[in-house]
Design a protein that fits this description.
The complex is a heterodimer of chains A (639) and B (256).
Chain A (H helix, E strand, L loop, with lengths): L1 H9 L1 H21 L6 H17 L4 H23 L5 H23 L16 E5 L3 E4 H23 L1 H11 L1 H6 L4 H23 L8 H17 L5 H21 L9 H16 L24 H21 L5 H27 L6 H17 L4 H23 L4 H17 L5 H4 L4 E3 L18 H23 L1 H11 L1 H6 L4 H27 L1 E3 L5 H14 L4 H15 L5 H5 L2 H20 L7 H5 L15
Chain B lengths: L4 E10 L2 E11 L4 E5 L6 H9 L6 E6 L2 E2 L5 H6 L2 E3 L12 H9 L7 H5 L4 H19 L15 H13 L5 E5 L7 H18 L2 E5 L3 H7 L2 E6 L2 E6 L1 H6 L1 H8 L5
Parallel strand pairs in B: 3-8, 3-9, 6-7, 7-8
Antiparallel strand pairs in B: 1-2, 1-4, 4-5, 9-10
Helix pairs in contact in B: 3-5, 3-6, 7-8
Chain lengths: 639, 256
Amino acid sequence: MKLTFSLALGGIPIGAMYALQALGIVIVYKTSKVFNFASGAIGLACAYFGSTLHAHGIPSLPAVLLTIVLGVAIGVLMELTVRPVKGALTGTIVTLGWLLVLTGGVGWVYGTQVATNEPVRLLSDKQAFDVGGVLVYSYQQLGLLVIAGALAAGLALFFRLSGLGTATRAVSEAPDAARLLGIQVDRVNLVAWGLGGAVSGLAGVLVAPLLGGLNTTALIILTVQALAAALVGRLSSLPMTFAGGVVLGMLQPVVHRALASFSGLKGTDELTAFIVVLVALLFMRRSGRKDVVSGGLVPVPIRALPTGRLAALSFAGVALGALLLPILLGDRGNLSRYNLTQVAVWGTATLSLVLLVGVVGQVSVCQAVFMGCGAYGTGIALAHGLPFLLAGIAGALLAAAVAALVGLPAIRLEPLELAIATLSLSFTADRFLYSWPPLASDDGKREVVRPGFAGVDPGHVAAGNRAYAWLALGVFIVACFAVASLRRGRTGAALTALRSSEPATAAMGFSVVSVKLRGFAASGFLAGLAGALYAGLVQGASGAPFDFTRSITLLAYAVIIGVGSVPGAFFGGLVLTLTTVDFGATSDVANGQVVSLTTLFTGALLIGVLTLSPDGVAGAVGRLRLRRGPATSPAEVFA
Amino acid sequence: MSAALELRDIGVRFGAFDAVDGVSLTVNAGEVVGLIGPNGAGKTVTFNVVTGLQPATRGRVLLGGTDVTRAPAHARTAMGLARTFQVVQLFAGMTVLENLMVAAHRHTHAGVLVDALRLPGRRRALATAEERGRAVLSFLELPHLADVEVTTLPVGQARLVELARALCLTPSVLLLDEPASGLDPAETADFVALLAHVRATLGCAMLLVEHDMGVVMPLCDHVVVMDFGTVLASGPPLEVREDAKVRAAYLGEEVA
């Protein structure tokens, strides 16, 4: 009991940091209704910037103040890119682009190996006091707690008393009416984003020493804790957000200890946060008329399937692309076959998102998790003696089941909330699922042999077996036709109808729950199939290829290329394969700088496409725009 | 023989407020019943209880003699209930025919696998649905609209298409939520004539919520007037129109 108590109290300072990070999210959301997924990434950038300043001999306090300036600058820049975008959900996807840009940028500048940089410390980590061994805080912890608490209270007071607080509420409730009343909406938004960026940045700088040094992944994954705290505060109350962060901080060490008896269980902290996120989301049910359109993504107009000559032409195009690829991507040997297989794998993965975003109308930021389930599931099925092809299908079925499970809360959630839930799942999978013994075995890796296909040293370029490449390509082509057929068939009709109006679809005799779940399961199945093929290609399943960056990247390219386009999936596969190709000097590759540059580029492309050309490549973005039903004028769903 | 639709003592309570308090009504097979009342009388809530979007706090809903009080909306559709919406809710991004086919799929069976892998049942399902959709369009004399994208339709035509979509379900009871709202007098008259035609030809029972007396009077066999969540009066249209309590509720006249 005493130990539990002590553990819980020890978690308060880190909980205060979660809260600070969450405050950055809430301040932005309160005004713009955009969810800043890049909050953790701002903290990351500021923490690294602070360490550089410190290394150049700038004392701690001015260094921290300068990092806050950087935070403001990033926040302001983000506002400028979110402003031209219509709809809160699309704006939120822009922040995902920023997450990629900032992580990629930091990785490019500093390398992704565990940094030698020392985080800037405001206070010493000497012990401040010790109350009977139960309450032991260092000066550092104590200081952070005070700073975070004071900031939360100060900001809450500021929002309540100042004119900005009222203006913020007006802007978020009815931007057009606010504009008519003479409130400078853009300026209010700018101030909120700047303030949010400052708070997020400060949180990153302050928390870095508590995490025992600068660690890119750890700082980014902090986002899931911040999400949990922000949701506890219902995305509006600053004091409740603070309380949420602190309680989460207290809960985590206790849960960790309670689960310690299960050996090999890692990532319980993220698991705890994820569960808090889910529970909070399900409690955030809103009231309102039940026969009004639920809103969401605007349905993709379904054009007639290309038939006759057009079908032949597009098929020829794909085939030609497939033949050209080996030439594009290296010599005609193993490497090109390896890359060709990869195109099929990532193409199938993109296709699963085409189905989910383009047809079901839901945004998933955890598609790589479904791939991971497919990969591990294949490994497990192989271990039980199934032949490779059946094992792959078994893996895909596991992924479909997981996807249906993820889709279950989606029945109640708005698309933005589902994005929050799925991103949290991506973070949690990295830390928890991919090292969970029943799934991933003890060391997080599973062998995936592929009997029937030349088994060679995993990782060797010879893994690019010709027969295997044909298998993967065949699966991809069948999947393309399956998605196109599904879309034009009975289920596709129901799914498209569902996006327009849930009550009307139910009135047509379709069960909303069942239709949505079928859509999720089908998408998960495809992603799982892609994961199984990938595992077969590299002859092993592990979590690394399916981390949160991959999930975001998948969504990014699905959006950039066109969420409604089946042939677009092929180009998605092509581009995603290109992102996995290493180039440049070997030392840069080893240092992770090449990968970081690709991530940076992907993020910038996503922001650029969404901001500059709202019609997007293949009109993708137009489909992401939020509108209400057909009878009313375009209006934001989250208004 | 049991009624096509029957409400028994329906009550819906929001917090401490009784939105609907003890409403009973019966729609016999082939009969048209109008549900009228001033704004806030509880008409729409009652309507939503019938469709299954709003759970009733008490009372029972019977469809063709079967208790459907706890059945979800889609299950009621399968039992012969069809509806239109006050604010037209056609499926955007689809053509008129595609909209109708979503409804017509009530009569088809094809699962995800059949659809995705083009297994034998798929073609038959699509053909059946299309045939049904086209048949209803020609019945309503709208075949020229088949390939029009629904968001481009003016309100008057959108209402017709929504009616067509509901008819694709082959309903035994058709629920119409303010079918004349947003229509001009000429369009309203056409719509009334069309509903009369539908009723004469298909013989399905109808329950309509409506403000416009020009719709209610010529169409309804029976009118139920609601106010403050309760039934104020009930009977043939002409009788109800002369009812003093109804006049008071509608026109603010003093009850003599």
